[in-house]
From TrEMBL:
Residues 152-179 are annotated as: Disordered. Residues 170-179 have a biased composition (Polar residues). It comes from the Bacteria. This is Uncharacterized protein. Residues 159-168 have a biased composition (Basic and acidic residues).
Length: 179
């Protein structure tokens, strides 16, 4: 029997004569093969990971991120959900946009991201991805999918901020403070 790991042959020779017949030699070789497989696995064992404390979210595969757009000098905030689509890694984002947002939108995006991940965990590739295209208008996490009303209009990527409005993370210059 040959059993090679890290370019070393860990297998052995099982003669019929030594083991008292063909069947006994085969059983001994198969038993030793199982032992070696347990001692020297070929790849990492898949484990279910628990959420680590002090992460951005308390759920596996769901997180919150603030990404700086250097060209616009603005910050985009979004929740992301990692999953595997057709055995390939994929990410679904639920963006809060570039503008200041209220707590309702933040909670809505958070709950929608968790709903997406839980649905994907339960259904896998059979998940209906199309229903999440209108996530900003509908509460997909509530039964019956009631509407979600935004209190203010979201600013698109190319639009400027209205006069006097600023994002919470934008720093005022000394000239602006003196005025």
């Amino acid at each position: 029997m040959r059993f090679i790991r890290k370019k070393k042959d860990l297998g052995g020779f099982y003669s019929y004569n030594q083991w008292g017949g063909i069947e006994k030699a085969l059983r001994a070789a198969m038993s030793r093969n199982k032992q070696l497989k347990a001692l020297h696995p070929t790849s990492k064992i898949r484990r279910v990971r628990r959420p680590t404390p002090d992460t951005s979210c308390g759920f596996n595969g769901v997180g919150f991120r603030e990404k700086i757009d250097k060209r616009r000098n603005e910050v985009e905030r979004f929740f992301w959900v990692s999953y595997r689509k057709n055995d390939k890694p994929a990410v679904k984002t639920f963006s809060l946009g570039y503008t200041a947002f209220d707590a309702d939108l933040h909670l809505h995006a958070y709950r929608t991201a968790i709903q997406f991940r839980q649905e994907w965990d339960a259904m896998g590739d059979d998940t209906n991805f199309d229903k999440y295209k209108s996530w900003r208008k509908v509460r997909l996490y509530d039964p019956g999918y009631p509407k979600f009303e935004l209190k203010r209009r979201r600013r698109r990527k190319g639009e400027k901020l209205p006069e006097g409005e600023r994002l919470p993370d934008q720093v005022q210059t000394n000239e602006e403070l003196s005025e």
